[in-house]
Amino acid sequence: MTNKLFFGFLFFVNMAMFAQVVYNKLDDKGNKNGPWKGFYFDTKNPKYEGAFEHGKEIGIFTFYDNTKSKRVVATREFNSKDNSAYTIFYDQLKNKVSEGKVVNKLYEGQWKYYHKASKAIMTTENYSKGKLEGLRSVFYSNGKIAEEML
Predict the structure, then answer these.
(1) Distance (Å, rounded) from C-alpha 93 to C-alpha 118?
(2) DSSP readout, 30-95?
(3) 49 forms bridges with which residues in the sheet?
(4) pTM to 2 decimals?
(5) Distance, first Cα to last Cα, the chain
(6) Where are the domains of the chain?
(7) 4-46 pLDDT tens trace
């Protein structure tokens, strides 16, 4: 009995060691499906990783700079209900640079831009189908309004 348990345990440990996630697969229609990794052509450094469901991005995609340090420069969280992606851009020190929603690769709704190396909002802008629309507000680093434009 002990031998059976021991060999059963070894079998499962061995399977777990060799089990690997399979990346960059296509479905039967040639669409990206499952976990996916992209690489920079010239350096082969990781460019992004995320997942597709029959050609459509799902969940969170993480984008990296073209260095071996693999610094995150952006994230996109895809929403299948409205075909949008909430996007956040980061500087080299992991501070937010800007954030907002993208629909069909066009800015949509309010976008926030941050003061350098700060959580304080520097500018808010509103977009409709990629075009600047409505109120644009600029703030001092203390949060007080510096300028507003329509």
Answers:
(1) 11
(2) S-EEEEEEEE-TTT--EEEEEEEETTEEEEEEEEE-SSTT--EEEEEEEETTTTEEEEEEE-TTS-
(3) 37, 62
(4) 0.84
(5) 79
(6) 1-81
(7) 554 455 455 444 445 578 999 999 999 999 999 999 999 999 9
